[in-house]
Amino acid sequence: MDRxxxxxxxxxxxxxxxxxxxxxxxxxxxxxxxxxxxxxDADLVRNGGFESGLDNWSCTAGKTVxxxxxxxxxxxxxxxxxxxxxxCAQTVTVQPNAQYTLSGYVRGSYxxxxxxxxxxxxxxxxxxxxxxxxxLTTTFTTGAATTKVTLYTHGWYGTGAYxxxxxxxxxxxxxxxxxxAPPTGLKxxxxxxxxxxxxxxxxxxxxxxAVYRDGVKTQTVSGTSATVSGLAAATAYSFQVTAANxxxxxxxxxxxxxxxxxxxxGGSPGLPAHALVGYLHTTFANGSGYTRLADVPDSWDVIxxxxxxxxxxxxxxxxFNRCPxxxxxxxxSDADFKAAIKAKQAAGKKVLISIGGQxxxxxxxxxxxxxxxxxxxxxxxxxxxxDGLDIDFEGHSLSLNTNDTxxxxxxxxxxxxxxxxxxxxxxxxxxxxxxxxxxxxxxVQNGYQFYGTGKWGGQDPRCGAYLPVxxxxxxxLTLLHVQDYNSGPIMGLxxxxxxxxxxxxxxxxxxxxxxxxxxxxxxxNVFPPLRPDQVAIGMPASTNAxxxxxxxxxxxxxxxxxxxxxxxxxxxxxxxxxxxxxxxxWSVNWDRYANWEFQKNFDAYFG
Length: 607
Known about the structure:
Elements: H1 16-25, E1 41-43, E2 58-59, E3 62-65, E4 75-78, E5 88-93, E6 99-116, E7 123-141, E8 148-154, E9 162-172, E10 187-191, E11 196-199, E12 208-213, E13 216-221, E14 225-228, E15 236-245, E16 248-249, E17 256-259, E18 275-281, E19 302-310, E20 318-319, H2 334-346, E21 350-356, H3 367-384, E22 388-392, H4 413-429, E23 434-437, H5 467-472, E24 479-480, E25 490-491, E26 497-498, H6 503-515, E27 517-518, E28 526-527, E29 536-540, H7 552-564, E30 582-586, H8 588-593, H9 597-606
Parallel strand pairs: 18-19, 18-30, 19-21, 21-22, 22-23, 23-24, 29-30
Antiparallel strand pairs: 1-9, 2-5, 3-4, 4-9, 5-8, 6-7, 6-8, 6-9, 10-11, 11-14, 12-13, 12-15, 15-16, 15-17, 19-20, 25-26, 27-28
EC number: 3.2.1.14
GO molecular function: chitin binding; endochitinase activity
Family: Belongs to the glycosyl hydrolase 18 family. Chitinase class II subfamily.
């Protein structure tokens, strides 16, 4: 037997009008009020038990969970951030001059339940601490012209997750409006390697439509067509559409399936199914010592020469100055270095110039700087016969201007010019050109919570600043290997903060890249997932290389969880990706210093 949620009509408060009607009917000679004068009480909240996910709710940072629940099989979990109270809201239709009772069950620290737009006095009820389910209740009377009220739950800034379930608003119904019928005639139109155009028939009474990709809402539109972009090449997707009006959202339409084309972009030119990427210190020496390119073991499939740096922050003029003999006594000659590049390439390896690094700030603020960047990088690639380019912009190289809030359509010059420069280089060298990026988590995954200066300003404008670059170049991008090190705590898709030091951090950060995520918590502004063959996980090679080192056992657990869905810890990823490209490390030199521990573990895992 199904375990049904207790009926919400039990113990339901009655409106003032209903009580008055009952009293009048008890008076001799009074038979009944007209049907127009008496409105039956009803529960006006749609999906108040969150059994249909977040349908009918608008949340800044929320999801549904199967435990803990108060009734049924689902409840809301929402986690406030430093500048977000994790509000979930729903607007309902009400009657003027009517009394309503709002109630719901909550648990957690600082949970609020309230109503705004009442036309009289907005109300709320809250608890500072609810270790178990606690009922919150409040009442209000609508104003003389009020026909809509917004109900909400929220927590408090920077506190832990809160839960809500069985939210109800009892009082006179606002009318007989119903959600529209499901759309019909859904069909796929133009299909590219990264997008699918959809169209469907108009629905009477609908004021908008929502598009679902593989069961997940990706966008809302006002018309009867949409283009879903940011898709992986040569991949099948299932699409559905719903119609919506003030009364709610319809059921989903029949599904249509479309497969994206193979594409001619980034791909993985010449890389093995699982690749090991390493940075080689070629312009400087440090405690790890200088390693000659010819001495790099064959396990390394992509070797990033670190670093090309600008003559000044805004010049765009990139120079590659190899380590001098005075600093690196065992440095090879230019002739031997170039011969080693050719030998590596003959063995199937890719050798790239990496631009930036910790000390190499690059800001392409002008079109002139952009053009200089293209010409100077091209010269390095041509002089040394390299396979491509790695972008390792850190520090203050990338930041977003105020009001640049759409990662799909950036307007900040340093972002726009970098995208243009990289597309120009890709077009110049063709499909075989290898393009990789190594951003820090602050510039990518932290965009799940914050993007640029934020809606109200005050945020770090660098936050999430790599997202428009990655998105614009996803069809040209060979590898993205985010630096999962030297990072602060980052919120994952489970709305929990994850810190360096174990497999869970790598699993959570990589899951975000392969699943996609709403930018700054906006469900209508989703950063689409990358292909698994485009993703490698960045890790320090040893304790000397950087903060965030994990043991070989934790590296193995990370790979097991992401590629096999086994050996997972407290974080459960949203998929299984056996085609995950591999690992990146800082650095080859530090791995040599640690007796090649990182390389040996990679070889043992992938064979």
